[in-house]
Amino acid sequence: MRISFVKTLFPVLPVAVVFLYMSSVKWEIQTQEKQLHQVQQNFSLHSALLLNKLDKLEAHLIAVEEKSLNVRNENKSAKKLFPNSYLFKQWTVELSEDDQRKAEDLFQKYGYNAFLSDQLPLDRELPDTRDHRCISREYPHNLPTLSVVLIYLDETLSVIQRAICSIINRTPAHLLKEIILVDDHSTNEDLKTQLHVYISSINEKHPGLVKTVTHSEQKGLSQARISGWKVAILDAHIEVHVKWAEPLLARIQADRTLVLSPVFDKVNYYDLQVTKYPIYAQGFDWTLWCMYVEFPQKWYDQNDPSQPGK
Question: Distance (Å, rounded) from C-alpha 243 to C-alpha 136?
Fold first, then answer.
């Protein structure tokens, strides 16, 4: 009986195995189909999002191109409003009529291209005009600390900011003790407010580095310089090179009775490009006009511009 039951079971087992295998394959196929369907849905969703972003990017690029084209067309068609201006005789860029008016108004107010100054980076790169012997000269690490006095009267904000920025970036931190701004009774309230904000941002990074002196009345250049007398006294519309301070401090360290003047290059008033100036001593005549004086002949005979003039 038992043998007969086993004999009967043998044909059933292969069928059951085949059925289970088929069920397993069917389940696997259904699972793969579900996963594939999900992937297709996700792909469709991502594709839709990507196409949407591409459409927006294309629209943005078209808008930018149209705006750029309009500006170019406007500049091409803009007539020269100030052909006799000292600014536009030298500065020959293409500007819209509105920008020409702004640039000319600022030039009449400040005497230099303040319109361009406001567009230049505060930490712009400067061409290195130094002689190779100046570049290679080394100075002691333990030089005296330096206080820099900047004097201004209703300068444009970006010029003062660029002066401060260049002094901080191109003076070794262990040598720069402070920067003192002497305001010789400026009347531009916007300048006062915006400069105060800028100074506060500098002092957050470098506590106490920038200080201010404000005159209640205009005292002129000489009195403004006395108010802030420390070591290096400069007008606010300057930028400094790397290693500008070390040669001065090294000579002061050797003889603290010296009064020194660096060699100044020229910043063009119209395009603000730096132009190398011949090496001269600077001074004033009896009417207080700035003048340039040649060095003694023995300095020229040395044929070494890295040596001090006197």
Answer: 10
Report the alpha-carbon distance of residue 162 to residue 201 in Å, rounded. Answer: 14
Could you tell me if 180 and 212 are in contact, meaning their C-beta atoms sit under 8 angstroms apart? yes
Contact 175, 146 (CB under 8 A): yes
Three-class SS state of 65: helix
Convert the pLDDT of each residue in 136-188 to its tens digit. Answer: 999 999 999 999 988 888 999 999 999 999 999 999 999 999 999 989 889 99
Would you say how long the chain is, in residues?
310
- Confirm whether pTM is higher than 0.85: no
* Cα–Cα distance for residue pair 89/79, rounded to 1 Å: 14
H-helix or E-strand spanning residue 146: strand 146-152
Closest CA relative to residue 198, chosen from 239, 157, 169: 157
Strands 176-183 and 210-214, by their bridges, are parallel
The C-alpha atoms of residue 77 and residue 90 are separated, in whole angstroms, by 20
